[in-house]
């Protein structure tokens, strides 16, 4: 089995911008090299190209738009690909899309050779997202996002049942889980429940020492 993915979303946190973003990038690169565990990052848009150039880690956009041409203020999938990204989040809880937009974004990602990470809020939506055959479905109960309470402890069933629902629809689609992920124990529990990795933000991005948190996250794999 390939390495689980630990995907760190910088959101719009101030700590995820400028020099502090760079510190997280360096820490992710170091811990990935040392541990062999894949650590991806989803920095803020203006940092995508520099991140792709400076760090030997997979870089994801936080969102893409399935548009080309006369549209202003959008993030075309092909631009994300040209910047050097490997993929994109789609339909994050903090950037919700319609079902038609989700499908269009997954198709735009495929067309541009980008991985798609479709975020969902429950088991039913996980199953619906799997029907589009994205690379990943990432299930995150919205009430636990940013709470410091790990989904792996508060709601392991949503992980177990999302994995089962997704595999029933599209066995090749991988599953991530997120919300409150903060330790190696959370990551190990997620993997034991059938997940292919985790999506997380605040525990790394807002940490005094992101490298220490990243080391802890990979420690039990
Ligand atoms: O994208 C990851 C996110 O929504 C989870 O946030 O801060 O609970 O790890 P957090």
Automatic annotation (TrEMBL):
Cellular compartment(s): Cytoplasm
UniProt entry tagged with the keyword Magnesium: no
Pfam families per record: TIM
Pathway annotation: Carbohydrate biosynthesis; gluconeogenesis; Carbohydrate degradation; glycolysis; D-glyceraldehyde 3-phosphate from glycerone phosphate: step 1/1
Primary location: cytoplasm
Similarity comment: family membership: Belongs to the triosephosphate isomerase family.
Protein name in UniProt: Triosephosphate isomerase
Organism: Methanocorpusculum parvum
């Amino acid at each position: 089995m390939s390495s689980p993915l630990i995907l760190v979303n910088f959101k719009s946190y101030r700590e995820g911008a400028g020099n502090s973003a760079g510190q997280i990038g360096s820490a992710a690169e170091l811990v990935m090299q040392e541990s062999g565990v894949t650590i991806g990052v989803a920095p803020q848009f203006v940092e995508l190209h520099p991140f792709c150039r400076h760090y030997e880690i997979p870089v994801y956009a936080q969102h893409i738009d399935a548009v080309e041409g006369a549209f202003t203020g959008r993030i075309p999938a092909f631009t994300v690909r040209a910047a050097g990204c490997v993929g994109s989040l789609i339909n994050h809880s903090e950037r919700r899309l319609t079902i038609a937009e989700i499908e269009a974004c997954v198709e735009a990602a495929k067309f541009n050779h980008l991985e798609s990470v479709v975020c969902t809020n429950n088991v039913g939506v996980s199953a619906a997202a799997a029907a589009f055959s994205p690379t990943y479905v990432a299930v995150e109960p919205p009430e636990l996002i940013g709470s410091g309470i790990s989904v792996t402890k508060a709601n392991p069933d949503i992980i177990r049942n999302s994995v089962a629902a997704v595999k029933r629809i599209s066995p090749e689609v991988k599953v991530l889980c997120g919300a409150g992920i903060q330790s190696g124990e959370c990551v190990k529990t997620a993997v034991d429940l059938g997940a292919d990795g985790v999506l997380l933000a605040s525990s790394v991005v807002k940490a005094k020492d992101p490298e220490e948190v990243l080391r802890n996250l990979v420690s039990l794999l």
